[in-house]
Amino acid sequence: MSVWNVVETIAPQLLLLGFALALPALDYLFKDKRILAVAALIPMVVYAGMVLCWTLLGVWDPPVSSIPLLELDFFSGLFTLAFLAVGIIVVLSSPEYIRNERNHGEYYALILLALIGMTVVASSTDLIALFVGLEIAGIASFALSGFAKSDKRSSEAATKYFIVGGFSSAITLFGISLLYGASGTTSLSAMGPMLETAFGSYEGLHSVTTLATVMLLAGLGFKVAAVPFHMWAPDVYEGAPTPVSGLLAAASKKMGFAALFKIFLLGIIVTKTDWAVAVGILAIVTMTVGNLIAVSQTSIKRMLAYSSIAQAGYLLIVLPVGTQYALAGGIFHVLTHAFMKSGAFMVVVALGVRAVGETLDDFKGLNRRSPFLAFSMAIFLLSLAGIPPLAGFASKFVLFSSAVYGSMGADGTPWLLWLAVAGVLNSALSLYYYARVIKHMYMDKGPEERIRPTPMVSMAIVFAVVMTFALGLYFDAVIDLCMQAAGQAFPGLPAGDLIG
Amino acid sequence: MGWWLMFEGFPILSLVILAPLVGSIATFMLGRYERYAKWMALGASAVAFILSLAVTLAFVTDPVGSDTHNGYQFYESHVWIETLGINYIVGLDGISLPLFVLTTLLCMLSVVFSWDTDRRPKAYFGLMLMLEVGVLGVFVSLDYFMFYVFWEVVLIPMYFMIGVWGGPNKDYAAIKFFIYTHVASLAMLISIMALYFEAGLGTFSMEAIAGESVGFATGVQVAIFAAMLFGFGVKLPMVPFHTWLPDAHVEAPTAGSVLLAGLLLKMGGYGLIRVAIPSLPDGASEMSLVMAAIAVVSIVYGAVLCLAQNDLKKMVAYSSISHMGFVLLGYATLSELGLVAGVFQMFAHGLVTAVLFMMCGVVQHKCGTRLIPKLGGLAQKMPIAAAMMTIGFLASLGLPGLVGFPAEFSVFYATFDEWGLWVLLPLASVAITAGYYLWALQRSMFGTTTTDIDTSHLRDVDWYEAFPVAVLIALIAVFGVFPGLIFSRITPAVEMILGVMGGG
Prior knowledge:
Chain A is mostly helical. In chain A, 77% of the residues lie in helices and 0% in strands.
């Protein structure tokens, strides 16, 4: 392991880190704080460009890592793209929103640090690296959610998030240590065979791994806000500055899924029979509770919070189905959700900048005040509900169909069909509260004065709208990448699809 | 060999879909020039209609022996999402052709009928064109994925049309329509996934999957067919899943109702014969009696409900339930005549119901109410409207010489062929139908002039209302006298389907 290779492997993270360290200093140099946002965009765009060149265009190959902790594969590449896309959208929308706060440099630095943690999780091949990544991102997010220091709700959100986050990290770490004890390794790929050997010699070890599974499910369940570990999410999303809520809902949460996929489908896949049913029930409960509570929300941010709890339920389907096809659907859904959810939050940001409130009633008559914002919001919400030809439909289609496939055939598991049925029924349920917002925007009367969103927020929203359409209309290249990613990083899983 | 070779290799069907799509986007982007929205919409829908007429002329009536693609003409196939086996495949056969032309016709006439719409015209006409895109797409798709995409695309414009331009209770009606039909679509989605995986071909092509799925085990076929029957049946609508329809119709603006009853209901009937029945013949024959029972209940129950209505439009809405029941009854026989009759009934109902809803719109517009007890003697003030409404009602109750008669007659004939004297059950509805139509006509148009509304300033129909209705009435008469024009095109396609099903 040469030093150069290490530097080469983590070069993008170093780039982010460099800018993160420089930004607070730049804060003193520039009066126009938008320059800081542009500076923060540079490393993200460069990084995203590199990943795009490598994954989609195939014109460049990343260095083969000689560190046993990190590996750059399509799986990490696609997750990184999702994180960076959200990062770019959030940073573009931030300058005007936080204009009355101090310490802009630190704000962007913290976003970059959070992204470092997320990308580390996505490319980790080892539980230690994974945990370190979770912590880097976690601590940066705690600070970010308390960024609006003058706002009590923001401080409350930060405190709550910090306590719950710290607690869940501890539980996760406990689970990791149990797994290490049972298998004797922290390497995810080596864990499976070593666990099997260990089971061969001592059957009772199953109780240890089961305990570890419960701990990991609870710890990471907090991160992804799966029911019953979701209580913190609505409060934090509501209290945190809205761009940060977007970052938490669309990116932080996906980091939790990267970790869940890595641990459950790579590390402890050999014990799948022990946890598949439990995770399946967790998935159904999560999506149903999330959607049911979302129906009664009057704050748009809380509604979006519960909607992303429901989306976590859909994504949890991947684990019990446990095929490469399901995982491809999961990665795809992470990508599409990154755009539609962060887009929806950025519409709230754009309104917030113009001093429009955050309740559903504030959306009344939005179409007359700003057709652009109303149209964008409608697209994001319809996509979240899974209406074709938008991106959310395409990814849900793959996700749910993987459950249908898993339930069929001689070696299928029939109960998996209920995951698809629950997902589909929940999509219909979610349509109710999404359509209600659309009704407010287009059919109800509200204040008349026009709202002009600021240019940077508009750019972010246009980007998200375009991607929501593009990923729904033509996703061949993306789904192909997702399949390759799943096959590369999780070679042990059954294919679970019809494509050779 | 035929005329259609003129379009050999020419994407005429895509062009027909593209015209309203481009028109829709252009209409939305008119900006300050919103007074041109209706012209834009008329232009786009007229282009689509003229192109579809060209398609009709070039259509080979009996494709047997000609070099069509398994009976599908104007066939186009392009790879869309290769990884999942999703293709852009379109084609027309004798089943889809009548509905395809009906769509372009009704959309164009609806634009004309809405000529005086001044409330947010850009959005109104833009949405109408978007709806046309969706419905056309459904009728030409030969790939399950794009079929579903177009199917769902239809929902959004209709949701907005009801919700924005609807009546007093529009909020409830719009969301009920949206969610009710969306749930049904999702049932269909799951059954599409099941078909796709069970066939195991890695393609969503309807033809390829049908080739496999006819051989599925009976239990599997019944399960998938039942899910599809629910998915398509809600749209049809069949009792007991019909409750969204009266709400949606009563609240929708007139053009919305015309498109809803004239086209959207047909999507359900079309889905059954394009997808469910030929792909799952064993499931269909197992469920045949269930379909027949639901159909008869829909026919009779719908007709009885009509008797009880005071609102002219609500009555017409319930009559749709009854008349779409005939489609399902025709299908339930699974005989050649029954299937052909079902398709013909869809076409006939599309023409007739459009007239009825337009006339309801005229009454609402001129009199300010559609409540039958408040109307009366309108024929003296608006003779043309009364005549048009009378013809519409007579066509709908199945008067020989008008298009409803051959449709219903052949459904009854097929039913008699299959189940003998059980045909008397649905036949009884004819008497009820005649009863509610004539009764309503007598109370609203004839008799003593009403005093509940101010009739002194009543005007007769305006030109933009009369023109579409006149066109439709002409067609109702033409196809009533020459039903063979349609029958001769549907029959070969149905024979093709029965051939796939192994003789039915």
